[in-house]
Amino acid sequence: MSILILGIETSCDETAAGVVADGHTVLSNVVASQAEVHKRFGGVVPEVASRNHIETLNPVIKAALTDAGIGYGELNGVAVTQGPGLLGSLLVGLMAAKSLCFSLGIPLLAVDHIEAHIYANFLEEPQVPFPFVAMVVSGGHTDLVYATGHSQFSLIGQTRDDAAGESFDKVARVLELGYPGGPLIERLAREGDPAAIPLPRALMEDETLDTSFSGLKTAVVNYVNRARQKGEDINLADVASSFQAAVVDVLAAKAFAAASRYRSETLLLAGGVAANGPLRQRFAEQAALRNIRFIVPRPALCTDNAAMVAAAGYYRFLRGDFAPLTLNASADLTLECSKF
Ligand code: KG4
Ligand code: ZN
């Protein structure tokens, strides 16, 4: 008999629920994005996000069960994102998960959002070998993680300022493209020249596995402002393409430096920015050259979703690592102390 875990994800602006069988087979993956709601603000408004989660979550959970073709009684556990994320939003998911576990008499599984992004890879490749290095690139994080076993994670590098996704979103705002910025920049960049504008690649030559993207964002802002002041035409596609090339260069340099330093034969990429085509291509090419096994989830499993939460929860279920119903959300939960 399969073990069926319902995942619930409400850490930011996606209301998501999904059912995964045995930690790898996605039976359903329902994501209701609030992007349209937050678009006019140019970013996520926390209070608006939590109100939307309250309205949307129950129908999303019902849809996830319907799509999976199962009833509540067939679930073996509920996995929920405990953090990090927006506190009000996390609490909505947590309350729903706790209520379900209480009424169904099944275990609650507390999942770290970054851990969940990493586990999206197990939905593609159930036998991901340990140890591995994972790079998680999202709107809030640019983390390099060394994993020696399930939930045995060490943070070996992180951004010192903006996250990679955040820099895509901020540059998109400067270019007046809209929100979220990543996919819009990627599309526009296809028409541009990645070498058109010289932009900085911070810390790239340094020993550190940390990254920094605020200088890159400022360089783009300065370039655009200077051109606007002089009344010059700006080739937006060239700006988008040059910016994206700088991010890809830095992320690839750090990820492969980490794989080499930790002698890891496997490299995982995860998080919303991992949906980026040129980034995936660069990682695949570099991995092939270095004989490293590269795994990345399909784009729909890179951006926030609940199937990845269910996948991470499955391994906690197997270990009997159940959370109490008094579990609280943690806005600044960090990977190495994802305990309660
Ligand atoms: O993982 P995610 O869905 O949510 C967080 O945990 O933050 O990541 C969202 C981030 C946003 O900053 C978005 O602009 C970026 O991922 N993103 C992309 C692409 N798709 C989403 N960045 C670059 N290229 C993309 N195709
Ligand atoms: Zn995320």
Describe the structure.
There is one protein chain. The chain is an alpha/beta fold. The chain has two domains: 4-120 and 301-337, ATPase, nucleotide binding domain (Nucleotidyltransferase, domain 5, 2-Layer Sandwich); 129-296, Nucleotidyltransferase, domain 5 (2-Layer Sandwich). Helix content is 44%, strand content 19%. It has helices at 35-39, 46-68, 87-104, 113-124, 164-174, 181-189, 214-229, 236-261, 277-290, 299-302, 307-319, and strands at residues 4-9, 14-21, 25-33, 77-83, 108-112, 132-137, 142-149, 152-157, 266-270, 293-295. The strands form two sheets. It has a five-stranded mixed β-sheet with strand order 3-2-1-4-5, with helices on both faces. A five-stranded mixed β-sheet has the order 8-7-6-9-10, with helices on both faces. The longest helix is centred in the C-terminal third of the chain and has 26 residues, at 236-261. The model has no long low-confidence stretch (mean pLDDT 96). The structure holds 5'-O-[(R)-(carboxyoxy)(hydroxy)phosphoryl]adenosine and zinc ion. 5'-O-[(R)-(carboxyoxy)(hydroxy)phosphoryl]adenosine binds at residues 12, 138-140, 165-166, 168-169, 180-183, 186, 271-273, 275-276, 303-304.
Q: Care to count the β-strands?
A: 10
Mean pLDDT: 96
Q: Report the uncertain regions.
A: none
CATH superfamily of the largest domain: ATPase, nucleotide binding domain
Which CATH top level class of the largest domain fits? Answer: Alpha Beta
Look at the helices and sheets and give the structural class.
alpha/beta
Report the order of strands and helices: EEEHHEHEHEEEHHHHEHEHH
Total count of domains: 2
**Per CATH, what is the topology of the largest domain?**
Nucleotidyltransferase, domain 5
Radius of gyration based on Cα positions: 20 Å
In this entry the ligands are: 5'-O-[(R)-(carboxyoxy)(hydroxy)phosphoryl]adenosine, zinc ion
| Largest sheet: spatial strand order | 3-2-1-4-5
